[in-house]
Amino acid sequence: MKLLTEFISKQVESIQNDFRSGSATIARNAVYILKNTVMSHGNEINKKDLIDLAKQLKNVKPSMAALQNIMQTCIYEIGLLNNITEFPAMTFKIFTTMNNAGEKCLNNTIKILQENNFKNIITCSFSNTILNLFEKLAESNYDFTAFIVESVYDKYNYGMQLFDKCIHSGIKTEYINIGDTEKTLNTIDCVVVGADRILHDGGAVNGTPSLFLAQKAQSAGKPFYITAESFKHSDILIVEKGFEFIGRKFITKIITNQIA
Predict the structure, then answer these.
(1) φ, ψ (nearest 5 deg) of residue 212
(2) Domains in the chain, number
(3) How far is the C-alpha of 63 from the C-alpha of 16, rounded, in Å?
(4) For 86-113, how does the pLDDT look when each residue is reduced to its tens digit (9 = 90+)?
(5) What distance in Å separates the CA atoms of residue 160 and residue 123, rounded to the nearest whole number?
(6) How is the chain split among helix, strand and coil, in percent rounded to 5?
(7) pLDDT, tens digit (0-9, with 9 covering 90-100), for 15-26
(8) Looking at the domain assignment, is residue 260 inside a domain?
(9) Is residue 230 exposed (0-12), middle (13-18) or buried (19+ Cβ within 10 Å)?
(10) 0.85 exceeded by the pTM?
C-alpha cells in the first residue's frame, strides 16, 4: 500500500508541476494517469481509491476548467462501473470525445480565418490548441504568418515556447517583444488565443498577457478571437497567478466545437 500511495503522489505532482503543457493536454494526461493506475495497480485499488485520485487531479490546477470537467466526467464514469478493470477501455470514449471536440474547434476557427482572408495572426501565451491551429493551416498550404507576443510568467517565456514549436513545425513565425505589440497590431489582421476557462457570460481566462493583448487589439480596432473546446466551459471564475480574465467586451467571438 505504501508503494501505491507513493505512486499516486508522484502522479498528482506530475500534473501539478506541469507548467509547459496546454490545459487540454494536461486533462488528457490526467486521464492517462487514471488509466495507467488501474492497469498497473488494479488489484490494489478499488472504485473509491480511483475516484479519490481523480478528485485530487481535478483540484491541482484550479484555473483549468478542462482538467476539472474531464476529471468530473471520469468520476461519473467510474461510479457506473461494476469493476474498475473496465475503466481503461472506457477511456477510449473520453479521448474520442475530446479529440472530436478539438478537431471541430480547429475547423470552425480555420473557416473564420479563411472566410475573412486573415493572413497575419497574432497570439500570446502557450496553447496546444493554437499550435495545432497553426500546424493545420500550414498543412493546408494557407499563406499566413503567426506573430507571437513575448509571454513571461515566473521567469519562463511561454511565448518563446510556442515560437520554438512553430519554427520546428515549419510555420512562418515572428516573435514580438511585449513593447512592440502595439506597433505590430497595426500590421496584423486578427488576434487568436486559446483559453483555460470559458465563462458562460462570454468572458474567458487565459495565460498572461492575454488581457493586455485584448486591450491593445480593441484600441487598434482588430478582431479578438478565442478558440477553445466546449469542455473548457465553466460557471465559476477562477484566476490564479499567471492567468488573466478577458471580459466579453474585448472578445469578438469565442469559437468552440459547437459555435463557428
Answers:
(1) -55, -45
(2) 2
(3) 12
(4) 999 999 999 999 999 999 999 999 999 9
(5) 12
(6) 55, 15, 30
(7) 999 988 999 999
(8) no
(9) middle
(10) yes
